């Protein structure tokens, strides 16, 4: 791991405790009982981040999984790095265009696993037993349509936070996901019933898909508070915050109507996040810090 991706001492301690919590647990299922899992990794000019993510996946102590990489025409060494690994579990596909959810949807079309999860460059599983825990939890809960776990959120500046809450209509009306998309494992058949990710969106495709699922009572959903994935927030920009804001409002209005939208505008934090980023840029420009 290079210095750019090296965790801080405090974060290393937190990750160490999380890993120990995962690795101390005994596994009660035989290898043949675990369902096949597909991890989808959309990439575009991700050469600086791609290695940490792929290494995390290939290190999984899980009997049956595949890594489906969908590249949107990278101009750097991303594809070269991936192909240099020469691992039979990696499948690489290239498409024209690099929109996030178009890449993911292409990966879903190629997925052979019973369960599908999604990682982005820079993200990684906290433990090499993360997949085994997730799929073991799925077996214990009679293979639900969706399982999700806690997620570690980090931006490289503040102490990492854990995201985990119930998947409920009340939270969704407030624009809040139960966890990150990276900590969700969808049954492959779900996408045949409700459709894939909305390619008109740039940031909130996972939230929009969860809204569709939550409003369809036929889906079974289970969750575990165990933290299994690490979500890299360091690349968030002012533009991304604005896109996040407008897409969230659009989705809330589409699914829940005008009154929930007005309530959300009153309580949400994206505007504060935008001005905080803007003021930070001004401070750097005029004060050099």
TrEMBL record:
The keyword Membrane applies. InterPro entries: Glyco_trans_2-like, Glycosyltransf_2, Nucleotide-diphossugar_trans. One of its GO terms (molecular function) is transferase activity. Gene3D superfamilies: Spore Coat Polysaccharide Biosynthesis Protein SpsA, Chain A. The chain crosses the membrane at residues 251-267. SUPFAM superfamilies: Nucleotide-diphospho-sugar transferases (SSF53448). Residues 38-140 form the Glycosyltransferase 2-like domain. The keyword Transmembrane applies. It comes from the Bacteria. This is Glycosyltransferase. Keywords: Membrane, Transmembrane, Transmembrane helix.
């Amino acid at each position: 791991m290079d210095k750019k991706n090296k965790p801080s001492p405090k974060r290393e301690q937190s990750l160490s405790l999380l890993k120990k919590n995962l690795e101390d647990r005994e596994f009660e299922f035989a290898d043949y009982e675990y369902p096949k899992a597909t991890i989808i990794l959309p990439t575009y000019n991700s050469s600086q981040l791609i290695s940490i993510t792929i290494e995390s996946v290939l290190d999984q102590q899980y009997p049956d999984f595949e890594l489906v990489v969908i590249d949107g025409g990278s101009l750097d060494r991303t594809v070269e790095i991936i192909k240099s690994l020469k691992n039979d579990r990696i499948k690489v596909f290239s498409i024209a265009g690099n929109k996030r959810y178009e890449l993911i949807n292409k990966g879903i079309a190629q997925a052979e696993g019973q369960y599908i999860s999604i990682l982005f460059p820079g993200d990684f599983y906290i433990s090499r037993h993360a997949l085994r825990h997730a799929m073991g939890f799925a077996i214990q809960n009679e293979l639900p349509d969706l399982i999700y776990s806690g997620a570690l959120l980090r931006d490289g500046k503040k102490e990492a936070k854990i995201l985990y809450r119930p998947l409920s209509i009340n939270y969704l009306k407030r624009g809040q996901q139960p966890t990150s998309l990276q900590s969700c494992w969808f049954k492959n058949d779900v996408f045949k019933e409700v459709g894939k990710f909305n390619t008109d969106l740039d940031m909130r495709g996972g939230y929009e898909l969860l809204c569709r699922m939550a409003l369809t009572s036929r889906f079974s959903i289970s969750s575990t508070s165990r933290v299994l994935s690490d979500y890299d927030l360091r690349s968030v920009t002012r533009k991304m915050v604005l896109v996040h804001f407008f897409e969230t409002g659009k989705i809330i209005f589409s699914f829940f109507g005008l009154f929930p939208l007005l309530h959300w505008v009153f309580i949400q934090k994206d505007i504060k996040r935008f001005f905080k980023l803007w003021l930070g840029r001004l401070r750097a420009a005029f004060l050099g810090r």
